[in-house]
Amino acid sequence: MPEPHDKDLVKRCLKGDQKAFEMLLDRYQKPVYNVALRMVNNIDDAADLTQTVFIKAYEKLNSYNDRYKFYSWLYRIAVNTSLNFVEKNKRQDLLGDRDVLQGSDVEDELESLERVEKLEEAILELPPEYRIVIVLRHFHDLSYNEMGTILDIPEKTVKSRLFAARQLLKGLLLKSGLME
Amino acid sequence: MMEERYIELMNKEIDGLNTPSESRNLQTYLNSDSEAKKFFDDLQRTAKALQGVEEKEPPSYLRNHILNSIKFTPTTRASQPGWIGQLAETFQSRSFRRYALVFASGLCVGILFFVFANPWRKELTDTTKLSGSMALFPDLSHLQVVDSVHVESEGIDGAFKTYRNEGRIFVEIALQSAENVRIELNSDSAELVFGSVGRLAGTEGDVNVTQGKIIFTGVNSDRSIVTFSEVGFAQRPIEGRIYEGGLIVHSVTLRIK
Lengths: 180, 257
Prior knowledge:
The complex is a heterodimer of chains A (about 180) and B (about 260).
Chain A lengths: L5 H9 L3 H23 L2 H17 L10 H19 L21 H16 L2 H12 L4 H8 L3 H22 L4
Helix pairs in contact in A: 1-2, 2-3, 2-4, 2-6, 3-4, 4-7, 5-8, 6-8, 7-8
Chain B lengths: L3 H11 L5 H13 L1 H17 L11 H7 L14 H11 L1 H22 L16 E3 L9 E9 L2 E10 L2 E19 L5 E8 L6 E5 L2 E18 L7 E7 L2 E8 L3
Parallel strand pairs in B: 1-5
Antiparallel strand pairs in B: 2-3, 3-4, 4-7, 4-8, 5-7, 6-7, 8-9
Helix pairs in contact in B: 1-2, 2-3, 5-6
């Protein structure tokens, strides 16, 4: 049986069908969580933000315009919620929290983990508006057009911001010794 | 200084979006400029490094937390945007449409000016037939507040208040926002007829009035009072909505009795 389309699930949600919302949650919980995690670098905060995003999405579901892709709409809520959080917590110690980086206890992978750790730290050093384009393009494989829709900026701005973000990240990787 | 077209080609090459001929074009350029080649190679290595970062699994409790925090009830589908909404949406979406709209609007304004406001026209407009207008900012301090709703979050801080006096309903809006927002007031046109909008000097944005709906656009600081006249004894509340980037960020119901 084919998977129901997002837009059909939204219609069912609007009629109060909890199962339909659960399907949307199962489909997008992980990507939304990862957007938040890459932006805030803390497992608990990312989980809280994911919860907020889905509550907001449910509350605003009747304002969703089905001319657009559901996930673009949802990502937009996730991006705005994460950016607002980052803005409010500018003074957070971005590099002080290692929660995110303890994904494996296999010692053999220590070196590779260390590289990933440095890379994640470098990403977190990017200003939020540059961090988000790296996250959406490289971790969520979104097109320039989709990114423009989500970030509410023209495609041309997406491209120039992505180019600048990559340049900044390159500098940070060189500085951290990840690249020579 | 690198040419913009090569910057675009580098971006697209990294993202695997170049056509074979574009890739060749970029390669030719890189072969002719060793500095640009080094720059591009570094960028490509940066992008490759990102491939080593894996997605993380959300905590196992999260799904239940989310489901437990939502009260599932049937929701009425919002009506599709009217022509003003569609116009606004089109205006926001793509630049070529925007320019076309600006041009068409200018043309319409020109025609309207010629038809209604040209100095050779002899007859005067019958002002008694106007259904609404901009007005002075009225003093409501002597009236009792019927309802007051405060909104705060999403970078918005504001309040809506309603007042009632001698067959008239007043809605006072006071709002500050970090981003430009759109405010809509929806009333039952069978019960309330729009009278006027009074805005405090310095208040930004435009106001559009359509049947039963008052729309403030481009607002990040607003202090306005909207006046309605009652038809009979109005009872139905006025719905207020604040939109940011096309999404409803606040929805309030304002009692009028």
